[in-house]
Design goal:
- There is one protein chain.
- The chain contains twelve helices and eleven strands.
- It has 334 residues and is of the alpha/beta class.
- The chain has one domain: Aldolase class I (TIM Barrel).
- Strands 1, 2, 3, 4, 5, 6, 7, 8, 9, 10 and 11 form an eleven-stranded mixed β-sheet that branches.
- The mean pLDDT is 96.
- The structure holds ligand PBG and zinc ion.
- Zinc ion binds next to loops.
Length: 334
């Protein structure tokens, strides 16, 4: 009878009883500094620092406190950041003119950050919602629909401004169709295509998990929602078509956002485009959820399991507000 149960060829436990063996059973799931990108919120006032109420340990920084914060993280091995500009003094209008006016905090900070941190890879989120009076990610027609052509033209203009100011990656999060080609064409026209890459928020879903971020950025739409441009949560098909379109238009990197509820989309995208590095944005709502999971040691264990799952699903880089904590964890392990 015992023979039926104890069949030698069905024993798996012999392959992972030792921690080194377990590592071999988890290929391509390690978390190193280059697998992490840190999103930062940049204020207009160079000396200000403001905690974000809905996100423990996350702050919005003016340039000077941001530099001090980054100095410490770069020392710990931080490889890359993603910058979001926030304006309160500059005007918000229908065309989002503050997105690329000379006083824009991102445009002003870029040359200084590049000079201060020559080895840090600097990406900039490109969108109009922090700068438009209506709070939408594109421009609107008089009757309130998205003006496709005008939006794409404007997004490309803003992306080019950030690229000229020193952004090494431009990352359009607006979800307007065809913006990748428009941005690539703009980069080519200024001979920047080989020193600036395009990270497309290709599979960005209309998620309820952006809540804390919209509070932080004060970028929630005044009227309506983003369901006409962000993808419906149930649509794997639109996600596949969006990724295919962005690859065809010249995206260097793809992204799935949010992460954890969309790991099937991560796998489908990686399987289809294995040669395009794939990013996950672990969004503000995911951050807030994990922070509430328990004490600091439980949070760390759950965070690592989550990041491992994302890597297993096919993500090469994870954009995460946990970057400072992750760097501490990585450094302690070594
Ligand atoms: C807006 C933008 C959003 C995020 C990044 N860029 C939110 C939105 O679409 O409303 C979400 C980031 C997060 O929740 O952490 N273009
Ligand atoms: Zn937006």
């Amino acid at each position: 009878m015992n023979q039926l149960f104890l069949s030698a060829e069905h024993v798996l436990q012999g392959g992972y009883f030792h921690s080194t063996l377990r590592k071999l059973q988890e290929p391509n799931t390690s978390i190193e500094a280059h697998n992490i990108m840190y999103p930062v919120f940049l204020l207009e006032d160079d000396n200000l620092i403001q905690p974000v109420a809905s996100m423990p340990n996350v702050c919005r920084y003016g340039l000077h406190p941001l530099i001090s914060h980054l100095e410490e993280l770069v020392d710990k091995g931080l490889n890359s950041i993603l910058i979001f500009g926030i304006v309160t003094a500059l005007p918000k209008d229908a065309s989002g003119s503050s997105a690329d006016c000379p006083e824009n905090p991102v445009l002003k900070a870029l040359p200084k950050l590049r000079a201060k941190f020559p080895n840090l890879l600097i990406a900039c989120d490109v969108c109009l919602c922090p700068y438009t009076s209506h709070g939408h990610c594109g421009l609107l027609t008089p009757n309130g629909a998205i003006d496709h052509a005008a939006s794409v033209r404007r997004i490309a203009e803003v992306a080019l401004a950030y690229a000229k100011a020193g952004a090494q990656i431009v990352a359009p999060s607006d979800m307007m169709d065809n913006r990748i080609k428009a941005i690539k064409d703009a980069l080519v026209s200024c001979k920047l295509q080989n020193t600036v890459s395009v990270l497309s928020y290709s599979c960005k879903f209309a998620s309820a998990m952006y809540g804390p971020f919209r509070d932080t950025m004060k970028s929630a739409p005044m009227e309506g929602d983003r369901k006409c441009y962000q993808l419906p949560p149930g649509s794997a098909g639109l996600a596949a078509r969006a990724a295919a379109r962005d690859v065809a238009e010249g995206a260097d990197f793809l992204m799935v956002k949010p992460g954890l509820p969309y790991l099937d989309i991560v796998r489908q995208t990686k399987d289809k485009y294995p040669y395009h590095p794939l990013f996950i944005y672990q969004v503000s709502g995911e951050y807030a959820m994990i922070c509430r999971c328990g004490d600091s040691s439980e949070v760390q264990t759950i965070l690592m399991e989550t990041l491992t799952s994302m890597r297993r699903a096919g993500a090469d880089c994870i954009i995460t507000y946990f970057a400072p904590l992750i760097l501490n964890m990585i450094n302690k392990k070594q």
